[in-house]
Design goal:
The termini are far apart. The chain is mostly helical. The protein has a domain of 44 residues. Keywords: Membrane, Transmembrane, Transmembrane helix.
Length: 67
């Protein structure tokens, strides 16, 4: 039979478990809703800048060849 102190210990562990699980769920949701979209946006921006730079270099090369 579990004593009163044992019940308090189990209750405390249950409360701590819920806070621990809440922290993990919050972290995963932050990753999903904040960090991953910002990372994708950053990568898209870098890719777009690279494409613009390549187009500009091609345009300048064509201009040099024309003269």
């Amino acid at each position: 039979m579990v004593t009163e102190l044992g019940w308090m210990y189990l209750g405390g562990m249950l409360v701590l478990f819920f806070f621990w699980a809440y922290g993990i769920v919050s972290f995963v949701l932050d990753l999903k809703n904040t960090i991953i979209p910002k990372t994708r946006q950053y990568i898209r921006g870098r890719r777009r800048l690279k494409e613009q730079k390549e187009k500009e270099e091609e345009r300048e090369e064509r201009e040099r060849q024309l003269y």
